[in-house]
Amino acid sequence: MRANGTPVARGRPKRTTPAEVSRAALELFAANGFVETTVDDIASALGVGRRTLFRYFSSKNDTVWGDFDWVLDRLRGELAKSSPDEPLMGALGRAIVASNSYPSEELPQLRLRMTLITAVPALQAHSMLRYQAWREVVAEYAAQRLGLTPEHHVPQTIAHTAFGTSMAAFVTWVGDPDADLEASLREGYRLLATGFDVTGS
Asked: Is 141 helix (H, G, I), strand (E, B) or coil?
């Protein structure tokens, strides 16, 4: 209430989106460090309260990953496009490369995200849960193709091998500004499909 008795107009609380929260968090982590940046710092940068942030992400660690469910859904969608006649490893490699294709303007943010994920010790335990979810998508696909359960040794071996192949490409890309992520992924899965035949490089 103002001094003259008229009510003060109250607008709606400022809103944001998960993408904006993640982007702001990544920028602060890059500038100030992951450990040094607090949830309050992120909220302040966005002009919102802590409660608003927790509507989108349950923890500071989650902001680094962004919408990881979208990443998993994108991979499932690419795997679903494969033909039963397509060799399993060829189909898997194609789907993973396609699901990691990003517009050039999004690559700097992706590089920062992956730099944090692969280098910050405080994120490693949290990362294991995300890695497991990714491997489960691959194991489910391999199991369906082979007529096995996802828990069977063969689909699990394929999932863990695919994860290692993908991470090798990402780690190489993060460490080399001139590296091409899609090309590294494509070459990794070609090597995997050919039993690591380096003569085809």
From this structure: helix
Cα(170)–Cα(184) distance, rounded to whole angstroms?
A: 8
Domain boundaries, the chain: 18-63, 67-200
Architecture of domain 18-63 in CATH? Orthogonal Bundle (1.10)
Q: Are 155 and 142 in contact (CB under 8 A)?
A: yes
Question: How far is it, in rounded angstroms, from Cα 157 to Cα 162?
Answer: 8
CATH code linked to domain 67-200: 1.10.357.10
Q: How crowded is the C-beta side of 37, counted as CA atoms within 13 Å? A: 24
Question: With the C-alpha atoms ordered 76, 78, 82, 88, is the resulting torsion angle positive or negative?
Answer: negative
Task: Give the pLDDT confidence of 100-128 residue by residue, as tens digits.
Answer: 999 999 999 999 999 999 999 989 888 99
Angstrom distance (rounded) from CA 22 to CA 137? 24
Task: Tokens for 19, please give them.
Answer: 């993408």
pLDDT tens, residue by residue, 4-46? 454 444 444 467 899 999 999 999 999 999 999 999 999 999 9
Q: Whole-model pTM above 0.70?
A: yes
Q: b/e for 96-129, b at 16 or more Cβ within 10 A? A: bbbbbeeeeeeeebbbbbbbbbeebeebeebbee
